[in-house]
């Protein structure tokens, strides 16, 4: 029987490093071919919407009221809707190539209370693989690829929560996390949501006003997503009546949406930039488990402090 060859830690590290597309020194360089800071937007006037595109599919019904800028903020008011499996909802976006860090500062509340009182009523950052030329006539199920990170109330209704969801070929997996700190004293706080793409790794972080650093909530590994993505915002609300024909996705997407939603989101600004560390195949934020701890630490410092 042939002997199994084993690699020591140093040899394994060298082998992994040899397979990486970047070195430790190269990891400091911004990713992507061009600066994307010009995509950043402060919603201080209606003119701020120039350059933003709204997700619209011919033959599908609108799932939110058209976004508007009022009193120094972008106002998102969804109808009864949701992004789940092959269901589509509202999305305002920019096209972004390559790696990025997107940060949205927003406040999310119900129409009658600090937190929404209908199931799965949240707003936040939405990132989707484009489906060019999509219409109701040529739509086929099983082809949605996206992820999002949102704030509001998921389940049970009225509970302050974050929702993180990843959808691969229309198969959705979600995580619900506590967001009580964003609604202390019965008032919605301004919260910065952040999603960073570094190759196949997407990191989801948040910072509530008054906090010094961002907190990592989750990470998704999505090597399937293309280099060019639609990156921006979403808002959705009222799972019960918005999805009463689930899983008849064609009917959901084309029928007029009920107006029972209980959410309004105010977005002050959205910032885009390149990460300071390019693709690096360690998802852990614990530098003790990294074979290149100095690169892992640079990634952490970039994502939580800037």
What would you call the shape? Answer: globular
Major sheet: size, sense and barrel closure?
A: 8 strands, antiparallel
Percent of residues in helices: 10-25%
Low-confidence residue ranges: 1-32
SSE layout and pairing:
Elements: H1 9-19, E1 41-42, E2 53-54, E3 64-70, E4 73-78, E5 92-97, E6 100-109, E7 121-128, E8 146-153, E9 161-168, E10 171-178, E11 191-198, E12 201-208, E13 215-221, E14 228-236, H2 239-242, H3 249-254, E15 264-273, H4 293-305
Antiparallel strand pairs: 1-15, 2-5, 3-4, 4-15, 5-14, 6-11, 6-15, 7-8, 7-14, 8-9, 9-10, 11-12, 12-13
Written account of the structure:
The chain has 306 residues and is mainly β. It is 11% helix and 35% strand. It contains four helices and 15 strands. The strands form two sheets. Strands 1, 3, 4, 6, 11, 12, 13 and 15 form an eight-stranded antiparallel β-sheet that branches. Strands 2-5-14-7-8-9-10 form a seven-stranded antiparallel β-sheet, with no helix packed on it.
């Amino acid at each position: 029987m042939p002997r199994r060859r084993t690699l020591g830690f140093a040899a394994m590290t060298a082998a992994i490093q040899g397979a990486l597309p970047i070195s430790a020194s190269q990891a400091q360089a911004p990713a992507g071919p061009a600066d994307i800071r010009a995509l950043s937007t402060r919603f201080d006037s209606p003119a701020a919407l120039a350059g933003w595109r709204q997700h619209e599919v011919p033959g599908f019904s609108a799932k939110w009221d058209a976004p508007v800028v009022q009193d120094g903020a972008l106002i998102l008011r969804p109808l009864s809707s949701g992004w789940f499996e092959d269901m589509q909802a509202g999305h305002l976006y920019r096209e972004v190539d390559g790696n990025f860090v997107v940060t949205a500062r927003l406040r999310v509340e119900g129409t009658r209370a600090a937190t929404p009182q209908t199931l799965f009523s949240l707003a936040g950052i939405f990132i989707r693989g484009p489906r060019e030329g999509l219409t109701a006539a040529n739509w086929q199920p099983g082809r949605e690829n996206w992820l999002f990170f949102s704030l509001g109330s998921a389940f049970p209704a009225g509970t302050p929560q974050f929702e993180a969801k990843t959808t691969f070929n229309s198969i959705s997996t979600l995580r619900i996390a506590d967001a009580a700190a964003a609604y202390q004293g019965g008032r919605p706080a301004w919260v910065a949501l952040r999603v960073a793409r570094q190759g196949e790794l997407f990191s989801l972080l948040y910072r509530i006003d008054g906090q010094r650093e961002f907190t990592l909530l989750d990470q998704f590994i999505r090597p399937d997503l293309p280099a060019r993505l639609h990156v921006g915002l979403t808002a959705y609300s009222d799972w019960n009546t918005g999805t009463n024909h689930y899983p008849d996705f064609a009917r959901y997407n084309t029928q007029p949406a009920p107006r029972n939603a209980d959410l309004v989101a105010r977005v002050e600004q959205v910032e885009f930039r390149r990460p300071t560390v390019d693709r690096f195949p360690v998802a852990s934020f614990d530098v003790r488990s990294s074979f290149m701890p100095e690169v892992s630490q640079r990634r952490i410092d970039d994502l939580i402090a800037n």
